[in-house]
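Hi team,

As requested, here is the filled-out complex form for the pyridoxal-5'-phosphate run. I kept the field names the same as last time so the parser does not choke. Let me know if anything looks off before we queue the next batch.

— J.
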Amino acid sequence: MPEIKLYSQNLASNLDILAKKAFGKERLIAVLKDNAYGHGLSIFAPKVASLGIIHAITRDAKEALGIEKFFCNVIVLSECKEAFFKHSKIIFAANEIEALKSAPNGTRIALKIDTGMHRNGIKANELELACSIISEKKLLLHSIFTHFRSADEISGDFFWQRKNFDEVKTRYADISKRYSLPKVYFHSCNSAALLRCGKFDEDFARIGIAMYGYCDLPEVFGKFRLKPVLELFAKRVSTTKLKKGQCVGYGGTFVSNQNMISSLYDAGYADGILRYDGKGELKTTNKSLILGRISMDSMSVNSSEEEISVFNDATIWAKYFNTISYDILVKLNARIPREFV
Ligand SMILES: *Cc1c(COP(=O)(O)O)cnc(C)c1O
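And here is what came back:
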């Protein structure tokens, strides 16, 4: 079984960088959806709370229920389960007008606005309707939020969406008076948006990938010295000597051009590591070549060490697979043991 080590110091340092940008740790909402981006929700949540984070986000109510004791509030992004309404720390994202209509009276709500991503959220011109339902049903509106479609790209979209959200804020100020609704919090920034936004001026930022140590922003936005929190290790199962010309693994895609050592390590695609097809030159952290295709439970590597670090920088694997660091991290199987060091 492979192993995951999580580095407290790196997490603390990432949080400091982000808190500085957001003017306070209390303004950071830790995005812990999908098993904390593969880092392990049950171990990550108490750690991030111990480092001063008081708000969290999960994808579903079950995840939220497991961690609410560590936080002041947990926002659930995409599920509204009646069984959980009595939990006062849990706030449900309302992603459409229907959600407001079906929520029981008194439910805590974070209202999602579509400012241009067109994935979900109510339209700006539905805000008055939303407020009337909220007022009538005495829903407890915690915050109004939106999400950027291209915060990590060089384009004007970010500014256009920000302007749309500013208009929503102004409109809420007016409507809330008429419906006697309270002042609410506003949040729009994910990691990339927070890091690029100039002077941060909202109540919260929802930080995911940057907390875990990654940010794929183009360099024009600056360098942020984030450090990956996760490192994946595998243990040696056996070692063999390859003769020049012998090939390794399924399909024999790797052919040795010299006599060399090959060891089998106990990490494979069943553990959620993407299935490397043995083409190209994918290497482990200390630059040992992975030999041929990755198998279900194992991989061959030109190394004889008892334990290898498969990766401590998911961007290398993301680049090979033409994907993003999120995709590499979030797939890591939940049954892999994880520990903070
Ligand atoms: C996942 C998610 C985030 C976090 O995004 P990062 O790019 O990982 O910081 C923020 N807000 C919403 C609505 C999300 O779904």
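Two things worth flagging: The pocket of pyridoxal-5'-phosphate is lined by residues 31, 33, 77, 147, 190-192, 206-210 (CB under 6 Å). Residues 116 and 148 are 8 Å apart (CA to CA).

Thanks,
J.
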